[in-house]
UniProtKB/TrEMBL annotation:
Domain Aldehyde dehydrogenase, first and last residues per copy: 45-470
Protein name according to UniProt: Succinylglutamate-semialdehyde dehydrogenase
Classification via InterPro entries: Ald_DH/histidinol_DH, Ald_DH_C, Ald_DH_CS_GLU, Ald_DH_N, Aldehyde_DH_dom
SUPFAM superfamilies according to UniProt: ALDH-like
Keywords per UniProt: Oxidoreductase
Protein family (similarity comment): Belongs to the aldehyde dehydrogenase family.
Organism: Bacteriovorax stolpii (Bdellovibrio stolpii)
GO molecular function, one term: oxidoreductase activity, acting on the aldehyde or oxo group of donors, NAD or NADP as acceptor
Length: 507
């Protein structure tokens, strides 16, 4: 018995469960256990590659219907979806907690953001693509800018925020007039299904919203489909580059990538240490460090290094790690998402040792009441930035932070710019001039002032530079990648001018 039931792929307005017996039975079945309790089987999801064609055909049909609706009609459907999500908000949060291992309080925050995102999309994002008229742009001529939908759009979701991040891309695509195909992470099939059930209950026209469960091969086949015009991916740099490899010959596709980070916080000598301590505890270890905006490196002024690291270490030892739902004490951290994540985390711990980076708090696998993928947070100290260090350059995606001392703010900025990533950075100081210098000189999509690298606003752009993205930021500005701009010149009178005004005619 499994805790949850997978209903299958959603297309043509219905869920379709691939056959697991008989002549049409599929061979590939994804099985998922709870990362916080490996004895609990969550679900089994059969993968049918034949459904790729059916899902695409459904999305093509849905686009033809959806694009013809008025903006108000599309907005009304989104509000109906919002109402359905609100009814099932608690259920969605619990599913996220069981599938990802995130503590329930953290998962509830994500579920609430799914509800709130509808209003942000309508009120804040939609105005960015409102059609514009420029009067008298030429003699007797008005100009128009018309924002038009791309077509069927593919959203490939991540496991760490399985609902929130995909939901933002889905809503922006839909409100702009596109149909969507949602391919969630194979680790979080059920929470994705709950979202699609809400779209179904909201009565969206047939084919507008589609879901396909599966592995990387499903994504690869969808990416090669000519009819898919928009591609949105949230995940690792490595997978992002594979997506570009598959799609770069198809100039009709707009590809929006939100990738990883190796995020630096600068802790200056005049910072309020108590405030910075709380902010860093969250940014380093929330969601067990499985956030693309998690703080990985703290460039710390040498004058406060020993004092602050000692305080931070003491506080890190107080972190409660437990089952996200069935806990004895409410945890700050749950488990990592799967055994592969644990293996990678422990591999990085050994790598730091081999590279001579000082271990202040050891990251290790933990035995809890329920057997799961639990690890302890880890803290390291590097004497200086080492450009040859694999450990310092890599996105660990686990609860780890490395402190690196500096003497001048220029040195701190160089540390922040040293990695191949450029997603998020933060600076703690009382000096506005230092913050201004960081904004000007740090190559990053986000730079925060006296606030940690995690916890972005939906009403601002969210995305990175370098290997953290491809200049199509998410959140508020996702909608910019859901449309293309058409120009129109409108002549106000069709009365012909004097034919003699045309030069070069033999009249």
């Amino acid at each position: 018995m499994t805790k949850y039931k997978i209903l299958g792929n959603y297309y043509n307005g219905n869920f379709n469960l691939p056959a697991t017996t008989g002549p049409l039975a599929v061979e590939n079945i994804i099985k998922r256990s709870c990362p916080a309790d490996l004895s609990l089987a969550l679900w089994e999801a059969p993968v049918d590659y034949r459904d790729v064609d059916r899902v695409v055909e459904s999305a093509i049909k849905g686009f033809k219907t959806w694009r013809k609706l008025s903006q108000q009609e599309r907005n009304d459907y989104l509000k109906k979806y919002q109402a359905e999500v609100k009814k099932r908000q608690e259920e969605i949060a619990i599913a996220i907690a069981y599938e990802t291992g995130k503590p329930l309080w953290d998962s509830k925050t994500e579920a609430a953001s799914v509800v709130a995102k509808v209003d942000v999309t309508i009120n804040d994002s939609l105005p960015r693509i409102s059609n514009k008229q420029i009067d008298a742009i030429l003699p007797k001529t008005n100009g128009h800018i018309v924002f038009k939908p791309l077509g069927p759009s593919l959203i490939i979701g991540p496991f760490n925020f399985p609902c929130h991040l995909a939901n933002g891309q889905i809503l922006s695509s839909l409100i702009a007039g596109n149909s969507i195909i949602f391919k969630p992470s194979e680790k979080t099939c059920y929470s994705a299904q709950l979202m699609i059930e809400c779209f179904h209950a909201a009565g969206f026209p047939e084919g507008v919203v589609n879901l396909i469960q599966g592995d990387g091969e499903v994504a690869r086949r969808l990416l090669k489909e000519k009819s898919v015009k928009g591609v949105f991916f949230t995940g690792s740099k490595e997978v992002g580059k594979k997506i570009l490899d598959i799609t770069h010959h198809d100039l009709s596709k707009l590809v929006s990538l939100e990738l990883g980070g190796k995020n630096t916080t600068i802790l200056h000598k005049d910072a309020n240490q108590d405030h910075a301590l709380q902010e860093l505890l969250k940014s380093c270890f929330l969601s067990s460090g499985q956030r693309c905006t998690s703080t990985s490196i703290v460039a710390i002024h040498r004058s406060i290094q020993d004092e602050f690291i000692a305080k931070f270490h003491e506080m890190a030892k107080k972190i409660i790690i437990d089952h996200p739902v069935e806990f004895s004490r409410e945890p700050f951290m749950g488990p990592l998402v799967d055994q592969g994540a644990v293996d990678a985390y422990l591999l990085f711990m050994g790598m730091a040792k081999r590279e001579g980076i000082q271990e202040i708090m050891r990251g290790k696998q933990l035995d809890k009441t329920k057997k799961g993928h639990y690890v302890s947070p880890s803290i390291h100290l590097a004497e200086r930035w080492n450009n040859d260090s694999m450990f310092l350059h890599s996105e660990i995606f686990g609860p780890n932070v490395t402190f690196i001392p500096y003497d001048t703010i220029e040195e701190a900025i160089s540390i922040a710019n040293a990695t191949e990533y450029g997603l998020a950075a933060a600076v703690f100081t009382k000096d506005q001039a230092i913050f201004k210098q960081c904004v000007e000189e740090i190559d990053s999509g986000l730079v925060n002032f006296n606030r940690s690298t995690v916890g972005a606003s939906a009403k601002l752009p969210f995305g990175g530079v370098k290997n953290s993205g491809n200049y199509h930021p998410a959140a508020l500005t996702t909608i910019d990648a859901c449309v293309y701009q058409m120009s129109c010149l409108e002549v106000l009178s069709d009365e012909p001018e004097d034919i003699k005004s045309i030069i070069g005619l033999d009249l």
